[in-house]
Input
Amino acid sequence: MKTAREWGLMPEGRLAPGPGNAITDVAGVAVGHRSLRGDGRFTGVTAIVPHADDPFRLKPRAAVEVINGFGKSAGLMQVAELGTIETPILLTNTFGVAACTEALIRRAIAANPAIGRKTSTVNALVCECNDGSINDIQALAVTPADAEAALDAAKPGPVEQGAVGAGSGMTAFGFKAGIGTASRLMRIGKRDFTLGTLVLANFGAAGDLVLPDGRRPDPRAPINPERGSVIVVMATDLPLGDRQLQRVARRGGAGLARLGAFWGHGSGDVVLCFTTADPVEHDPARAFSTQERLADDHIDIAFRAAAETTQEAVLNALCMAPATPARNGRLYPSLADWLKENPLP
Output
């Protein structure tokens, strides 16, 4: 399968992608997948690990933007309140949230036996989309062991995209979709930074997709209400406060809108943004700490990177996923097949 750029669908933008055009271009970030197949199962788990240290002891600063809240994720409320994350981020199907939450809690306790006894509890962070059109979601196939496997598989470098991990059974705009990623390089002053995005794409009504060149692919699918969801996870090494991180996260909505999305009533659209710069210590040695923060007058470049990477990551999810039959016999076509049949003149 080819990426959106390899199909000539590179979104117009002023920022260059990172060397891998992936969220893992941000140093320290790792991604792993666990895919489940057979007996009606077509689902999985995707893990995003923010850095190589224990995130409970060294908490990345973070923020969440809920564009439309038709979702069943875990841990977002505390992120919004405290501005940090304490575990890796797991993505899965709607009914897999509990199993993934258990895995994150057990892993955190294993590393920190004082959790819940001599220190605070841990805020497990799990986000979801409903893959029930392809996967038998009532089978409750995802287990804590599957979540552990995704975490164990997490590594820096290239990220597998398309119908893999949590993206196995996801669809978007009437096409097969799933996991996609992209990154942008940012030069501010005399320093270089990166912003990378990973999406779990499962949203958009058939016929609404708009490609960067203006074409509107027809998936030959019935037009149904917008009832999907999308999870957007952004990582950066740019030093931002939690207010600024939320402002950057909000611009993920601009990337979704460029694709033709309008965030329908039944859509759960969530953006989570974290920075690896200046993490927060669980047990600070001093009552006051100093953290670097970007001046707001220079933040537009991060806004642009957020919009561009979100748009391209969704396009990659669509381009890298093969045609897949639904549980009712309907076929979710591949955008790649449509592009082959409809080449640019």
Remarks:
- The domain at 23-279+296-338 is CATH 3.60.70.12 (L-amino peptidase D-ALA esterase/amidase).
- The longest strand covers residues 268-281.
- The CA atoms of residues 72 and 94 lie 7 Å apart.
- The chain is about 20% helix and 25% strand.
